[in-house]
Amino acid sequence: MPNLKVTVKEFDKALRLLNDKLIEADKVMTIKAIGGYAMMRAGLRDADGVQGFSEDIDNIAARFDDTEILMIESVGKDLNLLPDWLNTDPIDLPEVYEVIDQLTWMEDKNYSNIRLYIADIPSLILLKTRAIEGCGLLPRKTDKNDLIKLLKKVDIHNVEDLEMNKNVSFIKEYSRCYSYLQERGEW
């Protein structure tokens, strides 16, 4: 059974192996990472000395071609990861594609044939807010926890702080998310 609790170090190893395969194939891949991997890279999935994890890296740069998919699957098999440990699943989600042009990125230049961009904190706040808002019947607990961690990271600890911060005032436009934060009170 594949490892579903993959750490940053394990993903970095997978990306290095993928980079080697891309070098051999004389290909370059762009990855724009959001979700759990981006949260881990920001240091926001670790708690009480326990290293954070995710089961995959969500990429919203572009869909992979067949050769790239085979490379990704090969790395997954070699390292006991999911076959789609690097995927483009979120590309079609309205909560992502409707704001894709508003997202900003940090570049990781550790790979010669991978252009790796990781969503920054403001972008993750926007994405988690939208995930809570547009998630169907029940928001995922992970998205709620992630949003609280992100808000704490920018020194927002209650609704009053949120209302005073112009960078995240957009959250008030998302009634489900804003109600959750109001009910939560302090964090």
Structure description:
The protein is an alpha/beta fold. It has two domains: 112 residues; 62 residues, no CATH class. The chain has eight helices and five strands. A five-stranded mixed β-sheet has the order 3-2-1-5-4. Strand 4 and strand 5 form a beta hairpin. The radius of gyration is 17 Å and the shape is elongated. The relative contact order is 0.14. The mean pLDDT is 93.
| Shape summary | elongated
- Kindly report the spatial arrangement of strands forming the biggest sheet: 3-2-1-5-4
The total beta strand count reads: 5
Largest sheet: 5 strands, mixed
| Overall mean confidence score, pLDDT | 93
Q: Total number of helical segments?
A: 8
User: Which sequence of SSEs, written as H and E, runs from N to C?
Assistant: HEHEHEHEEHHHH
What gyration radius follows from the Cα positions, in whole Å?
A: 17 Å
Instruction: Quote the distance from N terminus to C terminus.
Output: 37 Å
Structural class: alpha/beta
Oligomer: single chain
Helix share, percent: 40-55%
Unreliably modeled segments:
none
Work out the count of structural domains. 2
Measured by DSSP, the beta-strand proportion falls in 5-15%
